[in-house]
Amino acid sequence: MKALRKQEVTIQTAGEFKVGDQIQVGKYTATCQKVTKKGALFLLDQYLDDAYSMNRENTNEGGYEASDLRKKLQKEEALSIFSSIRDMMIPFKNGDLLRIPYAEEFFGDIDEYEPSGKKQWPLMKDRKNRIAIREGEAYEWGWLQNKVKSSGAYFAIVLDGGGTGYYGASYSVGVRPVFRLG
């Protein structure tokens, strides 16, 4: 097994990752959720320290792609958390280095959300893997990318007990970034 030493983190090369592998990213832990030809998808096990709104205004117009949250995740402040692995991060199709999960990746298909075409990650079949905390906080809700079909203001969320729900875009909840390593 070939390992690379990057600053304070030792990680494997992408071809050697498997679902369930964990790495340390700053003070956070991330778990490999899926391995593809394009790289290994990782999800932080904890929410970022701060809760964020999806949008300043209570709207889901434009979806996650047009959201204030997406813009925040691409700024240096958020990306600096990943400095120890940044040179191994592979951008997603839209050029972003970070994104948040889709509802289907956590729960499978859910009729009330706009579909993404994604499949449920194997580890998310276990409810405990959908539950997360922010440092110093109790379990909390977290954003997912999907808009709610019947609303102009709501996005999907993961509830504090690992179930699914939705919430107004202007409210602040937890954020668990997804990134790809290659």
Could you tell me how far the N terminus lies from the C terminus, measured between alpha carbons in angstroms? 15 Å
The average pLDDT is 92
The share of residues in extended strands comes to: 25-35%
Order of helices and strands: EEEEEEHHHEEEEE
| Total number of strands | 11
Largest sheet: number of strands, sense, barrel closure: 4 strands, antiparallel
Shape: globular
Task: Report strand order across the widest sheet.
Answer: 3-4-5-11
The residue fraction in helices comes out at: under 10%
Q: Count of helical segments?
A: 3
Low-pLDDT runs: 1-12
Radius of gyration: 16 Å
Structural class: mainly beta
Give a brief rundown of this model:
With 182 residues, the chain is mainly beta. The protein contains three helices and eleven strands.
Structure description:
By secondary structure, this protein is mostly beta strands. It is built from 3 helices and 11 strands. Strands 3-4-5-11 form a 4-stranded antiparallel beta sheet, with no helix packed on it. A hairpin with a 2-residue loop joins strand 3 and strand 4 (28-36). It is globular.
